[in-house]
Amino acid sequence: MLHDEDPIVAIATANGRGAIGIVRLSGDRLEPLIQAICGRTLEPRRATHGPFLDADGSAIDQGLAIHFPAPHSYTGESVLELQAHGGPVVLQLLLARCLAAAADVEPTTGKPRLPRLRIARPGEFTERAFLNDKLDLAQAEAVGDLIDASTEAAARSATRALAGAFSDEVNALRDRLVDLRMLVEATLDFPDEEIDFLERAGALQRLAAARGQLARVLARARQGALLRDGMRVVLAGQPNVGKSSLLNALAGAELAIVTDVPGTTRDKVAETIQIEGVPIHVVDTAGLRESSDTVERIGIARSWEAVEDADAIVFLHDLTRLGHADYAAGDAAIAARLAEGRADAARVLHVFNKADAAPAVETARGLSISAASGEGLAELRQALLERAGWQAAPEGVFIARARHVHALQRTAAHLDAAAQHASAGDRALELLAEELRLAHDALGEITGAFSADDLLGVIFAGFCIGK
Ligand SMILES: Nc1nc2c(c(=O)[nH]1)N(C=O)[C@@H](CNc1ccc(C(=O)N[C@@H](CCC(=O)O)C(=O)O)cc1)CN2
Ligand SMILES: Nc1nc2c(ncn2[C@@H]2O[C@H](COP(=O)(O)OP(=O)(O)OP(=O)(O)O)[C@@H](O)[C@H]2O)c(=O)[nH]1
Ligand SMILES: [Mg+2]
């Protein structure tokens, strides 16, 4: 599972640029290396100040060394941390020294004194933590999500998932499914009893309760996935309606060029903003119109590509020009093209700009805003959040991935099928058992914990059917 010919290979990385940088090693039998680099043995888990020695005995740096003997470490293996000054050169020297020391051989026997040491692959420390049961899969993924978090809310929810908030919910659900499966599997051994027995044992209420709990976890996982991945919003509309002005107003910075010349924006300008901690990837586009200018035509083609990719489209209109026939024709052409795309009515948000200079439209037609004065922007932010499906206050949310949402959806589908097989019309006990097994498998994919042995263990421990 470690993808290595030699399972005791140790891995190393050098991280950090700034005040402090760490060379971190994980593997087995690190003691000879500690002796070589630190010139002494280290008390377990105690930070010790001293020189990091080069091969000739000179000091590469003075720093803190910590040895975490297995299994009480991040990876569950023996870990050595050399906490040095955070300059790239000093860290590279230290890393090279570790690799060289590990390549060193016993003079008398010619055998290496250390396990092979190589540079770690990305994520390999956390992968080893997972393989050694220090973290489950959802927690290991949360480590990556914490590091990549683009907003404070995303970071906090990743920390919650890393601490096990998501895994705990999944495991509670799994325990319910295991209980149910035990009952159903036991019933299968008594053909006379069938579903009536399960009914009397309360299995069907338990199934419904598990389904309800799953729906709540799914709703929270969806919120978590939104915090992680955010939503792509495209600002589209005719030239000069104020798309670039709106991007700048939402971002609070002069990102895109604004002029009164129609056709100012030639290429996409993208920025990630956050609304209540939800990352919103906003793309400003070239104004949509018929054009004979080569460059502008390419820009407009890119606008349409952005529209295709978007989760939501802000179709921006200009209140000051609503009455003009040319303008109305331009908007109608865009609306027609939007209607050709995939499920677009649901993705399009009509927004009317320049409310500072012309009367607003009635709210049924869309939001009236002013990119210039800021009027209506709070409502627009709320409307975007609503489009994204954001409901929760971020406090309770744990980070999640599309993979988790899909696994939960498949679990839900199998539970629904199980309920169908349990129902009066169907009463197919074997199929009910099979759907519960599939639900259990799908759920187990989230934490990576599922294996058939787990379930068999529980069944054999919980029941003594005498077979
Ligand atoms: N210096 C340093 N800081 C770091 C890390 C690291 O590896 N090194 N981490 C890297 O991501 C994170 C902290 N994660 C860690 C998780 C577990 C253990 C650990 O020693 N676990 C042992 C003992 C637990 C205990 O005594 O409470 C264990 O699980 O047995 C260490 C760091 C962030 N900060
Ligand atoms: N009165 C008023 N003028 C605005 C508002 N928003 C933008 N404008 C003006 O409208 C003109 C066009 O603004 P832009 O933001 O460049 O418009 P655009 O939609 O990006 O235009 P293209 O890039 O050409 O497609 C500029 O003169 C802006 O100052 C607004 O809310 N009120
Ligand atoms: Mg523009």
From TrEMBL:
Mind listing the UniProt keywords for this protein, alphabetically? Cytoplasm, GTP-binding, Hydrolase, Magnesium, Metal-binding, Nucleotide-binding, Potassium, tRNA processing
Recorded GO molecular functions are: GTP binding; GTPase activity; metal ion binding
Binding-site list for K(+) = N240, T259, V261, T264
Q: Where is the TrmE-type G domain?
A: 230-389
> What cofactors are annotated for this protein?
K(+)
Does the record's keyword annotation contain Cytoplasm?
A: yes
Q: Where does (6S)-5-formyl-5,6,7,8-tetrahydrofolate bind?
A: R24, E81, K134, K467
Enzyme nomenclature, EC number: 3.6.-.-
- Residues at which GTP binds: 240-245, 259-265, 284-287, 353-356
Protein name as it appears in the record: tRNA modification GTPase MnmE
Instruction: Look up and give the organism this protein is from.
Output: Piscinibacter koreensis
